[in-house]
Amino acid sequence: MPTADRAGAQHAQKTCEKVLAITRLGRKYGLRVKECDEEAVFKQFRPGQSYVKVRVVFKWRVHPLPFGFQRHHLTTLLRKWGWPAKPLQPLKGDSEGLAWQVGSEVEPPSSAMPVGQSYALITSLKGPPAAATGHQVCATRRTKRHIIYDDEPTGSGDVDPWSFGNDPLLALRLAYPCPPKPVSAATAKLDQLKEEIQSGVTALVRKEWQACGQAVVESASSQNPRLQALEVAVTELQAQAGKFEDWFSTIGQKVSAQEESQKQVAATLQAQQTQLSSVQSDVARTAEAIQTTVTSAVSNLGNQLGEKIGSQMAQQTAMLESILQQQKAAEPVHKVNFFLGRLLDGWWQIEPQNTCKHATRRDYIYLSPELAALLREVQVQGDFAEHSTSIAGLQIDVGVNKVQSWPLPATMHWSAVTSDQWSEQMCPDLQHTTSTQWLKDFSSAFENRIDGFVQPNACYGRASHLQPMQGTHCVISAKPHRPGEEPIKNGLLCLQVKQWYRQLRRLQSLMRALRANKLTPDAVEYRLSLWRSILQSSGFEGGFPNWFETRPRRHQGMPSLLPLSLPSAAFATRLFKEFRDSYRRFESWHSRQRHAILKAQHEQQHSLLFQDLREAAPAQVDTLVLRHTHPVIAIDPDTQQVVQPNVLQINGDVPLVADLELEQTQVESHPVRTDWSRLMAFAEVHFPVLNFALPPITVEIWYAAISRYKVRAARGPDGYGREDLQRMPVHFVQVLLRFLHAVEHEHQPWPLQWLCGLVISLAKPGRSGDGVNGYRPIVLLSIVYRTWSSIRARQILQQLAQHMPPSALGFMPQREATSLWFQLEALIEVNAQSAKPVAGFCTDIAKAFETLPRAPILRLAERLGVPTSVLRPWGSFLEQLERRFLIRDCVSDGVQATSFPEGDPLSPCAMCVAVYVYRTYMLVFEPRLSAYAYVDNWAHTAATAALVARGVFLAQ
Q1: How far is CA 56 from CA 31, 103, 469, 637, in A?
Q2: Is the Cα torsion angle 457, 459, 463, 466 positive or negative in sign?
Q3: Which segments constitute the Reverse transcriptase domain (predicted)?
Q4: 839 in Cβ contact with 952 (< 8 Å)
Q5: Distance from first CA to last CA of the chain, Å, rounded?
Q6: What is the average pLDDT across 550-558?
Q7: How far is CA 766 from CA 19, 253, 338, 613, 853, in A?
Q8: Chain centroid to CA 313: how far?
Q9: Which residues face 23 on adjacent strands?
Q10: Greater pLDDT, 353 or 100
Q11: What is the rounded CA–CA span in Å between residue 416 and residue 341?
Q12: Secondary structure element (H or E) that encloses residue 100, with its range
């Protein structure tokens, strides 16, 4: 306990049952526990730090290390090296870096280990204790020498050395001879000894043979991963070499094509030079003849032009006089955009033709801009002798346009529901045949179980729609005031003010109609119906005549009652002026009251100020601006035509396919077979098998996930909202969780109500006018599925973060974008201080989620150890998901894609798997690079630009 004092250590002893005693080393206090409880107590009092248990036999010095290297950094580095060791204490470093003392039980893998772009040297400080020596012989020096150098041959063991001399026991032997030994016992003893020796030798040989065989098997099994890794590396190198060959062959073909084109240009220039020389000589000869001819022709033309110009001027003067006289008598004519309506000028890929006697063009068709937008084809038919027939084909929609909509039920009025009584409701037993029917019955039971709390009919209908509804397209446009009419000052006031404004417009229209005094039947009928509408108008207590009789302010000379018959023009004028004054006072009073109400609300709730000042939400797609550029090959100034290689589409409507434009053209809507064997073989060799422990979803976990949503979280196509799930009784939640558990174990398929997503295209900041690329498609899924997937994604990312390298950032806890910039900034600063070069490369994957291949990502996640109870239902959901684009409350036809939708909480897990693949691939094939990744922003740094180029090649 580095930061604890005596009181803190005593408190820890009292709060933890596994602590046996308190220990002290100088001013530091610690806890004494049993060896089996050491890891648990360490994690309890030192959370966030790695527990390393190593018996220190060797002590080593690791140098140099980067400046600022702390104990947890060194622990992570030792784990990355695969060396079971732990940091002991820092040592004195030098200008090259820091030094640390490390203790271990075994020797390091190598004396030089990589640290970033450099290496750290590992030197021994203390080795294992010396082996204990044997027992010493206590004897004289002569005896020890005799024991060591006693090499004299000895006699046979069967001959008694005293048989040739005086044996002191000879007399006793003769007196008492030994009984003879039985021969059979000796023979049996020898046979037994022989059998024991044979069995022992056989067992020893068998044991040695088994040991040798096991060693061979272990050696072969240990070599298999190495051979497999070597095979994968050779395959990747062959693929990379193939890329190089393709690039070099392409470059060679381009160079040879350029050489051939240069030769052709040189030959063409030489031929043109010879032609120019001949042309110059011809021009010189012709110039002399032309000069004489022009001189004579000019004199003749001068006389003829003078006569013709005089006659033409007289004719034009007469025509202008007649035209001016006609325009004075006629009404003003409307201008027509002749450029848009001129059909036979080449814009419709038709060569200009002479329509009058095949000699001149005198027949034209002029269209307004509105009709030009409906133009679809142009034809010229020569059925008649003198004039050709010009045909313009228009496409006019007949009938009412049908649109598709996806109605959602209204939100429940939960403020009128007693939570205590509602929470006690039980979910009935649902007998179902399919999961789709089960969800429909479950939703109906959920809505109808509010006993005693009647909701409007619009609040019912959750999970009841499987297809969009067909309807008519009705456009309701606002009606502003006409020129000369009284305008409305504030259109945000109540309905009664708008009713008074309509009454004001009726009175003004009546005043003008009475002043015009037209006597046609239609005009008389219009004035009578208008006066009838004035008398029967709504918005006045007791009707307009009653209000007029009891009005608080009256103009001088105005009567107290309204006439039942049509009034005169003078009375209508005075009535209009008086009501206009009353309306202005009524409008200003409502405006002041609205201002006071808003002011009081802002004074009571200061959060409304922040809501008013916050930035507006991103705009949804309303109009797509598609810009196309076309090359121009040639221009004809006489006919004002251009020549282009392709056919242009300049008509009003352009076909727009949903899954090609709004979802990007590079996304495949249908699965395409691709060979991912290289990637899967690489994963089999270099990917570890992790252990993901995903606990079952409980009611507490479910409610905690719902509480993380915003108050106004978007609803999906099934109609469920955040408050519906939050107010759902516990028994209903348990039934819903049992159904999700059955889906995870593939006992139930996904309901069709959850297999539909509404795509909302939100404008990117600063790129709203950039066409399709200026919008980000967000898929709105069911909030029930989003809650399930968010719980599983949170569990997977928390466990995956423990195995991801520090340079892999994004979506995981404490791995933000600032960490990437901090790492790059520190790298640049250290290299700048040490005067070392550094180079780097960074790229961004366009439409990352929409371009991730689904099948290999799911297989790689399974190889990493993600449970199939999540992968299989997730893959089944993505395979059946149908997206419908939502624009102006209208939905498109359903489209499918082979990618991961942006809006699925599990999609970040797929991106993390892709980042893990990129980081591992770069580490295996070019360890001198330092790879970084933040979601779809991938980068790497190196000491030289050549290594960076090598990394770019590997990344491709």
Answers
A1: 20, 5, 74, 92
A2: positive
A3: 772-936
A4: no
A5: 50
A6: 81
A7: 61, 42, 38, 19, 29
A8: 74
A9: 30
A10: 100
A11: 63
A12: strand 97-104
Mean of pLDDT values over 931-956 = 87
Greatest alpha-carbon pair distance for the chain in Å reads: 186
Torsion of CA 924, 926, 927, 931, to 10 degrees: -90
Chain mean pLDDT for the chain: 78
The token pair at 348 is: 């419709």
Given its phi and psi angles, is residue 778 left (phi above 0), alpha (psi -120 to 50 degrees) or beta?
Answer: beta
Q: Measure the CA–CA gap between 243 and 259, rounded to whole angstroms.
A: 24
Residue 645 corresponds to which amino acid?
Answer: P
Could you tell me the two tokens for 90? 């820092």
Angstrom distance (rounded) from CA 233 to CA 239: 10
DSSP 895: B
Q: At a CB cut-off of 8 Å and minimum separation 6, what does 712 contact?
A: 722
Please tell me whether residue 90 adopts helix, strand or coil conformation: strand
CA dihedral 155, 159, 163, 169 (to 10 degrees): 110
Radius of gyration of the chain (CA): 48
Q: Which amino acid is at 593?
A: Q
H helical segments located in 670-774: 677-686, 699-707, 722-727, 730-744
Angle at 128 between CA 125 and CA 129, to 5 degrees: 115
**Four-residue CA torsion sign, 452, 453, 457, 460:** negative
Answer whether 539's CB lies under 8 Å from 474's CB: no
From the number of C-beta atoms within 10 Å of its C-beta (0-12, 13-18, 19+), residue 830 rates as middle
Q: At what angle do helices 730-744 and 435-448 cross, to 10 degrees?
A: 170
**C-alpha of 330 from chain center:** 65
Residue 860: other Cβ atoms inside 10 A:
21
pLDDT at 187: 64
Instruction: Return the number of other C-beta atoms located less than 10 Å from residue 475's C-beta.
Output: 6
Burial status of residue 59 (CB atoms within 10 A of its CB: 0-12, 13-18, 19 or more): middle
Q: Which residues contact 572 (CB under 8 A, 6 or more apart)?
A: 507, 510, 511, 514
As a whole number of angstroms, the distance between CA 108 and CA 621 comes to: 60
Q: How far is CA 391 from CA 343, 357, 374, 860, 920, in A?
A: 9, 17, 14, 62, 67
Task: State how far the Cα of 523 lies from the Cα of 509, in Å rounded to an integer.
Answer: 12
Report yes or no: 807 and 933 within 8 Å, Cβ to Cβ.
Answer: yes
Res 499 pLDDT > 80: yes
Q: Which amino acid is at 113?
A: M
Q: Which two tokens stand for residue 327?
A: 């325009």
Instruction: Give backbone dihedrals phi and psi of 403, rounded to 5 degrees, phi first.
Output: -125, 160
Pairing outcome for strands 97-104 and 112-115: unpaired
Cβ neighbour number for residue 750 with a 10 Å cutoff: 19
Q: 236-240, 781-785, 824-828: which range is least confident on average?
A: 236-240
Q: How many CA atoms lie within 13 A of 777 on its CB side?
A: 30
Q: By mean pLDDT, which of 140-144, 677-681, 722-726, 940-944 is the weakest?
A: 140-144
Domain residue ranges of the chain, discontinuous segments joined by +: 6-126, 338-394, 403-472, 495-613, 659-955
Which DSSP helix (H) or strand (E) runs through 392? strand 389-394
CB 761 within 8 A of CB 776: yes
- DSSP state, 37? G
